[in-house]
Amino acid sequence: MNRMYSNRVYIAIFLLPALVLFCGVLIAPIGASGYFSLYDWNGLAGKTFIGFDNYKELFTSDSIGFMKALGNSLLLAGLSVFLQLPLALALALALGNRIKGERVFLSVFFMPVLISTVVIGQLWLKIYNPDYGILNVALRAVGLDNLAQIWLGNVSTALPAVFVPILWQYVGYHMLLLYAGVKSVPTELREAAMLDGATNGQVNRYIVLPYIKPIIKISVIFAVTGSLKSFDLIYVLTNGGPLHSTEVPSTLMISMLFLRNRYGMGSTIAVLLILLCFGFALLISVIFKEED
Amino acid sequence: MKKILALILALCTVFMFTACGGSDSEEAASDGDQVTLKLWCIATESDANRPAYLQAIEDYEAAHPNVKIEMEAFENESYKTKIKAAMSGGSAEDLPDMFFTWSGAFLGDFVAADKVACLDDVYKNNYTSEQIPDVMLSTTTYDGKHYAAPTTYNIVAMYANMDLLKEAGWDHIPATYEELTKCCDDLLAKDIIPFGCAGSETWCVTEYLEPIIQKSIGYEDLNKIFAGEGTWNDEDIKKSVDTLQDMIDKGYFDPSGIALGNDEVKANFLAGKTAFYQNGTWNTGEVADADFEAGVALFPLMNADRATANQAIGGPSDVLAVCADSPNADLASEVVVELGKEICHYNYLNAVGLPAWTPDYDTGDVKPLMIEISDIVSKCDGMTLFGDTAMSADPAQIYLDYVAKVYGGEIDGQGFIDGLTKDLQ
Question: The whole model's pTM is what?
Fold first, then answer.
């Protein structure tokens, strides 16, 4: 086997399929998007080279509204990091302390991740329905009629109404990641701390959290890049409306590509999304490294 | 063991390479004389057109045993994405032989890219202008050549629940705008919501706004604007937008509508929650079957100086076309025109649309409400194709964005004409 590994021809042959797939599925489309982003093209007829005009227009045009969409994504990323992850961490720490019914709770919290996003979207559409939705019905039942809203149709409430199910759905995902980390903390460490008189909170603060820091970093990267790429639930719930108030870069990209036939502009948004995701992943890594 | 491992890995390598290769087996989809033609359309289970499609295909296959038509239906909005993606990047194997499309600029983009087969020979050899009047092909004619077969013909109509109107003391549909506002006030006094409009589907808002604009500036000027030859900067367009917003402000529209889709708004009307529903005449069958006495009319005249009462928004917007790259393009061209004619036939009988093709069958069973609409159309002295169909994709979407802003109250009439003038002209 060692001889086989040392043979470069073998290595090249066996790496080639993965390399071809990697280049074909990931690198080539990114390259193609970068290429098309330099053109004015409706996806059908001839292309016109316009250099970086699409990039300029993207950041300056009011009718496209990219900055608003990007702002929404960054807000979602902030909520994910500062609301969703702490909640997931709290659940992971609680479940990691061998509480009664640990497995049941684990399954229940993880269940939304397993359900199809479209199903979740439909579920929340019903919850938010202005006439028979459980949210408005509950508010009216307790005499808070004035708080009943057209949640997804009102510009001021649509964005938070969309964020709630997105954050709710993936709490379980991050909880599972962190729970695996919590469970990997050696029992000896916990016991040693306990023998020294540490409380549960102190054990979590000084033993568990530093131990699972690499997993927290991964969770933060997933939460931020996931927020920047968020699409499916927003598409189902509002499709970016009303009046583009829930638009994010991904829904804007779909709109440019398939509604406005602006393939060049759609490719530009795709390129920027890739750059933003890479940029934030690197930034988060640097921040965590500096803290170390 | 090492040899077996190496062999398995080598086989995986070969498999991965071969898996990336194309397959020729599906190319022609033919088996001897038997030819299979793929048809993409939006006639899903919930679509009112579906029975007509199925019946027309069944009839065609019975009359032509060597032809099999495989119909695949997609939801309306997702279909727009699918057909554009397939046309822009797809090879012949990815594309159907025949496809549903909207006429006007939507099809025009495909024609300009040489993606659609010309049907001139089929029309010239097999059909007369008595069977299919030239005007019905006008929205699919580019540079004098015909590229599609209409499956129906529809206008925007104002359906009314006459039972609710009677509750409010009205035995007829209001014929003037003053009457309409009086009627709406009377309905509100009886706690009946006059109109419903789906805010989450902006095309539904255009079904209200476009008739008001047309009845204010006339069909000719509106046609010019949609064609990019006229100006949005028109005082009467501003007034039209303000009129719609005035109706919204007075509570004539169900406030929940802003978050609802068209199916929900239509269901509310059919369930007797709203008194009026203004939408395409493809809804006629469902309205006629509702548990109330239904009436139909056009939106009333707003400005007699520039328009007339007998003008309508609509036209033959639903059509079938043939992919130019289809290996069976000639056969598909013949099939698609015949299918269009027969779908049109069954759609008329099912009260799903008006006949773009001159009926050569017994029309005795056509629903009375559909006949009422036929009468309205026969008196029409001008038509404007739906704005989002008449305009090409980018300006159409900008236009729809402004319409959504109007319905959401973000801009008024002045903002509407200023914005569109700036962004589209």
Answer: 0.80
